[in-house]
Structures are given as C-alpha cells and as structure tokens.
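pasting for ref. prot 1 ->
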Amino acid sequence: MDDRMQQFETLLQNMSKQLEKEHLARIEIEKKLANAVIVIAICVCFSYEGNIDYRIERLELALKHVTEKLETEQLARKQLETLLVEKGREHRQVVGRESEVAFFATIANPVHHLGQGQVLIFDNVVTSIDSTQSVGGYSAPTGVFTAPVIGFYVFSAIIMTFDGHSTHCAIHKNDVPLSTIYVSGANGHQWDSASSTVSVAMVKGDTVTLRHMDDDHSVAGAFYGGQSRFTGFLLQQHGHELSVAPIIG
C-alpha cells in the first residue's frame, strides 16, 4: 500500500503541474484572440477597398482557429480537473484504509522470582488484531510486541505486585527503556499497582516489551479481571520511513 500511496502522490503532483501549464497556455491563447480582434478592427478601418474583404476573411479564419484551440484547451482542462478530483478521492480512500493493529493481554497467574531484565509475559490474550496478517503483533509466548507497519503506537501497562512485594519494571522499545513503573507493595502496602503509558514512533520490525528491572520480585495474576495487564494499538500509520524521537507520556 505504501507504493500505491507514493504513486498516487506523484500522479497528483504531475497533474497539478499540468493544470498550471494549461492555465498559462490558455492565458496566451486569450491574448492572441484579443490581438486578433484588434487587428480585424484596424484592418476594417484602414484597408483599401480592393483587399479589405480578403484580409477580413483571412483574419476571421485566424480568429476561428484561435477560438477553436481555446475551446479545445478549456475542454481538456476540464477533463484534467475532473481526473484530478477522482484521483484525489481515490488517494484519500487508500490513505483511509490504514492497518488495524491492537492487543490487550493480562497475566493469568502470579509470577514469582522475576529476574533482572526478564520480559514479563502477559499470557492471557483478550484482544489481538493485526489486519496486515503479518508475523507482527503481540506474541503471548514471548511477551513481545513487534510492529507490523510503520507509524505511531500507544502502549500502556499496569502492574500489581504480589502480596508484600515491590517491583520495578520498564517499557522498552527494542533495548531502550522508555518509561519506568515502580510498584511499592511492601512497607504496609500489601497489594499495590502502578501504570505507565507511552506513545512512540516505530518502524516495521521494532519491538516493545515490559521488562523487570530488579531481582526476585513477584507480580500478581488475575483475581477479578486482569490486575496486571499490557495493551497497545496503532494510532497513526505512515507511508514512509520516519526519523522521529519517541514521545513519552
């Protein structure tokens, strides 16, 4: 679809340039038409009787030729404008058919003894949509989301610690931490939770994970719904490569 969008954009640019050329040509033709009318008037006033009919006939033929050319140019311009509108409508339809990518997953059972750098696996997948039918999207066995298309994505994670535990986690794009989640389930907070949301530019193949930052911590599983959950979706697809710094919120 990226190639089709690029082709449409190039076509629209070329058609716009052609319309501008046709507009300038029409102006020149109108000038010639006006000059021809003036010449006819002058000849009628100053020609001598022997040649006046011949000259008027020649100028009238020239005027007819210029008029026909102007009408042809106006018709071609109208057809080109109509084609431009149709291609623009088709281009908007193609742009509007963006890929649908979204997921929502929870941790089904409590996870104990998390290691440093360990990827949290949200194994209970509630929602998994990837209209690209690619190998991307969220993987329940690995806990890794892989971007199937280029664009801006939004991710959100909520972590609840196991009874009496504290936990540090971070949302990573590839191997770069974007946002930290600190959950204080100790010191009198038996069951505590915290969350974080990020919006980030990604290219196809980039990954997002939630990783544990410390040693030997535990997170709670599903008690009523999903206490620890991970979700994300494609906010805006793009048709070309981006070099945009991530926006963290």
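and prot 2 ->
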Amino acid sequence: MAEAESKSLDTAGHDLDTTTFQSESAMSAKMMELNAKERIVSAKAEIELAKAEIRLAQLQIQKARTIAARSKSRSPISSQSSPHSSNSHEYSLSIPEDISKKTAHEPAAKSLPTTQARTSKENRDQVNRVQRYFRIAFIRSADQSVSRSNVKRGWWCAHFDGDYVARQMELHPDKPPLLLVAGKDDTEICELPLKETGLTRKKAAEILPLEFEQVWMANGGREYLLKAISSGQAKPTYATAMLPRDAQSASVKT
C-alpha cells in the first residue's frame, strides 16, 4: 500500500516537473521571439538613420561642388603694377569685347535658377539647421489622484528642426499613438519655439536622434510622413529632406 502511494506521488511529481518545464520553455520561446522583433525594429531604424546620413553627406558634397563651380565662374581679375609705387597694384576686370559693345536695347540674358537648384538650396537650408530631440513623461489629469505604483504614464516626444517642431508623438498606454508632422497637423502640433518650451532646462529630457527615430519608426511614423508628403500637406523640414527620393516618389505614385 505504501509502495503504491509512493509510486503515485513520484508519478505526480514527474508530471508536475514536465508541465513546469514545458511552461518555462514556452515562456522562454516567447521572450526570444519578442527580443528578435525588437532587434528587427532597431535594425530597421538604424538602416533608415544610415540612409539619412548618406543623404546628408550627398547634400554636403553637392554644396561643396556648387561653391567650387561658383568660384570658377567668377570673372578673372588681372593685376597691373602701378606707376606710382612698386608695392601698390591696380585691379581691373577683363570684360569680353562682345559684352562691352551690347547696346541698351540688347540687355544680357538673366540666368534664372532652375527648380532643381531651388530645391537643392532648400534642402541645404533644412540640413544646416540644428536638430534636437526631446522626450518627457506625462500623466493624464484623470490619473493624478492614483497612487504612483498604479499610475499609467505616457510619453511626449518631439523633433525640433531649428526653433520649431517638425515631428511630434504622444504615446499613450491604453490607446494608439498620436503622430503629428509640421504642415499637416499645425492645429495640434506644439507651436512654441524651443526656447519658450523650457525643454532645454529639463533634466534628462533631451535624447539622441537614434532613440527618437526608433520609436518613430516602430509606431508607423515613416509611413505617416510619406502620406503627408504625397498629399502635399507636409512642410519641408529636415525630416522630409532626409527621406530617400525613391521613397517619396513611390508614395506619390501610390
């Protein structure tokens, strides 16, 4: 009798160990899956950031080439020794004869900037502005009376392109994220200049660009911005300038 009870207890213990092991294995597999998904999102964000850095480098190269081209197109200046002093020089512009003989009713044609040149200048202006990123926690007014251990915090994130917000996110614990971009969402986006927000004085409020981009990408921010660009509602900012041209073209076609 005692031996039968002992075997029964051993069998029950073995079944319990097996169930526990299976449960732990399932939990471990789930954690591995979540970690893999997080790494995928992080990798995608890093790829997009790398593309943005490549685009920035291309714009800087284009800027350098433009400056070099302008310096080459300047009229040559010829220096001549002055008869009054050996240390002083007179400078005269060498003007081509055909231009000097033009009459008043035959003005030289003005060179008009092309659309591509204007776009490149706008992109350079956007890229040269200072870019800063911020994240602060917030508590809904309805939850302010709840104890700290039970309160649900949200996050307010913003990308400042120069003095004003280019992209903004509100991440709530119990509802979908709110994404805003300059131009399309001007009635909802923060309209204060950076100095007036007080964000620069808040401890640990400023974050790295990669931290912002990872959250922005994970919550569908890239697709949202592309839709705003394709509908013509997005204001030209650093964020729009950094998007690859092929992605913008594809969004317009769709």
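The CA atoms of residues 226 and 251 lie 6 Å apart.
Helices lie at 2-73, 97-100, 115-128, 194-197, 209-218, 221-230, 238-242, 245-253.
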